[in-house]
Amino acid sequence: MDKIGVLTSGGDAPGMNAAVRAVTRKAIYEGLEIIGIKRGYTGVIESDFMVMDRGSVADIIHRGGTMLHSARCEEFRTEAGRKKAIEQLKYGGIEGLIVIGGDGSFKGAQLLSEESDIKVVGVPATIDNDIACTDYSIGYDTAMNTILDAINKIRDTATSHERTFVVETMGRHSGILTLMSGLAGGAESILVPEIDFSLEEVCEKLNHGYERGKLHSIILVAEGIEQDFTSSTDNNESQAFAIAEEISNRTGFETRVTVLGHLQRGGIPTAQDRILGSRLGAAAVDLLLEGETNKMVGVVHEEVKSFPIEESLTRSKDLNKEIYKLADILSL
Ligand code: F6P
């Protein structure tokens, strides 16, 4: 193998740059030519390629976002789109591809490796931390810290005004990011898609807190929860608003809503995410050099391991129910 490509795809995640840097410099160290592909699979189809040298990835390890830019590419979901992509990769002499992204990007990587002789390796990067076969994905730690910073600030104003705040966090269908941020942030209640909740219980807890002198509360709500309560609100954008209104109606407490949104995806990557990006990026190059394809790299109990992409897509990454219980106990 002489020439490989690297791209970042799907939702960006802090630490992606550290992974791009590691892939680039490890590839050069191993005597490979390395091509940076801009805008994920869109850039493959459009042949948006750039030759990378050591200097191309200078001064990026500490930056959020991704220097290669990212995209969610609809065309690549079609066979015709992937055919175009394969032609462009072949035309560019790219024999191996490293895909840094989440599960949607991994699905694309899997199809690409099955439909061509191009070797493909995935590096897990998503703030959601919902990819199986790795304890952590790149971006998760930074996002957790961003959420904590937000909770700290919200707590200040919640205390001053004696209000209940409903804070909505990202995570798509997973509640992992929300649960762990809620535990670390001391949230009074944590609502996640994996565990049924009753607003009645949330309100009871708030009332008990009030009886023992608590005048403010933080309820953390994962964006992926199912709406299973009644509300008069018309706001379908975020369930956090409906929940806040319902809590206010049932308890009489003054509520406010903060939807953290995309600020959770930005920011300076933490040490953990830079280290993870560096280790997994370099390991992905090693896998390609070993002739592997249709694999992903992950970190399990601090050790870098590899697994078939299929396994990471079909095994579910479960939310830790014991930690959920612990968060509940500690917030009583
Ligand atoms: O997968 C990362 C993520 O930030 C999810 O948490 C969120 O649901 C989604 O991406 C948002 O995607 P977009 O930036 O395309 O709106």
UniProtKB/TrEMBL annotation:
Entries under Pfam families matching the protein: PFK (PF00365)
Protein residues bound to ATP: 11, 72-73, 102-105
Catalytic residues (positions): 128
Keyword Cell division found: no
Positions bound to substrate: 126-128, 163, 170-172, 223, 256, 262-265
GO molecular function, one term: monosaccharide binding
Protein's job: Catalyzes the phosphorylation of D-fructose 6-phosphate to fructose 1,6-bisphosphate by ATP, the first committing step of glycolysis.
Protein name, entry field: ATP-dependent 6-phosphofructokinase
Source organism of the structure: Acetohalobium arabaticum (strain ATCC 49924 / DSM 5501 / Z-7288)
